[in-house]
């Protein structure tokens, strides 16, 4: 296996630095990004319900946070499975701890900004979930990023991730077509909530969840000591209030911000943050344009039928996704890091395969690292934990596949970003 891991934002060509050693902000790009965001906000205010503009703002903050902290799910899983470094996984546990603390009263009492129903992501555990999460774990390691990672890498100008996103959409659309077979013809258990299916209530489920997060964090520390795992290399940053806009954020700070933003998303649209359902919508609309009868698919029956018939801007997940891309673009430009990167046949092939696996797997698994893992666990759903275990298993297999495409894998002697 190869040696050094490049940070997602690394560029080889020199970019002017300021006196802190950081890249200079790309002011024209920042202005352009703000103009696009403002125009989209105005359009949503004029054409959609009030929740949509608010979700765009939340999406912008999500993308800004993800990029500024380099907050990853793909890299976190890969570091732990390859060399035993659990720093990023512990930030996941902090994020989940804050999330369940916020989600518990929201779900228990139905708190909502606009008076609608509030429900978490609680999905069945069955063959569909097991296969889908495992596929997603492999796919995100080949595609170069998970669902959120793909969006924020696109916003940062990483060219190969545009390929990943395209085939993520294709895979998700194919998964939507096949979903009925996986969910209705193959075995599965009913959805299990630690809060409502066990008699624990939200208070008891919160205690169990916090204990599980603490246990997982402790396990990562034990593994680190046993394997003498290398530490994550520091990323250049500045100090004081300027750090909000320049340089890297600490992982723990981003973990808290992401949890709070997910809770705000839950209260705004009545469901947690999700990403990949929009990919199935986009792909299905394109297929429908070319004459494919997507309305006959089981996925687009019932409540989903109205989603398919409406504008994509009426879809809250679409609006969040656009916000994430724009927020990451603004963050990368503020850090002077936006730059299209070079493509080669090997990374294109990896992105095609990875995107297809992630898209298809996300549909089978009732979501991705955000909808199933983050949103599922925050909603006290058992399927979120199962998703994480199977995605880790897929990551382990992908460690042996990545070098075939010229992709690096951390080694015990390396420090990495």
Automatic annotation (TrEMBL):
Topology of the protein relative to the lipid bilayer: Multi-pass membrane protein
Q: Which residues cross the membrane?
A: 27-46, 52-73, 94-114, 126-153, 160-180, 200-223, 244-264, 319-338, 350-374, 380-401
Q: Which UniProt keywords apply?
A: Cell inner membrane, Cell membrane, Membrane, Transmembrane, Transmembrane helix, Transport
* The protein's name in its UniProt record: Sulphur transport domain-containing protein
| A Pfam family hit | Sulf_transp
User: Predominant location of this chain?
Assistant: membrane
Location(s) in or outside the cell:
Cell inner membrane
| PANTHER family to which the protein is assigned, alphabetical | INNER MEMBRANE PROTEIN YEDE (PTHR30574), SULPHUR TRANSPORT DOMAIN-CONTAINING PROTEIN (PTHR30574:SF1)
Family membership noted in the UniProt record: Belongs to the TsuA/YedE (TC 9.B.102) family.
Q: Which InterPro entries match?
A: Sulf_transp_TsuA/YedE
Keyword Cell membrane attributed: yes
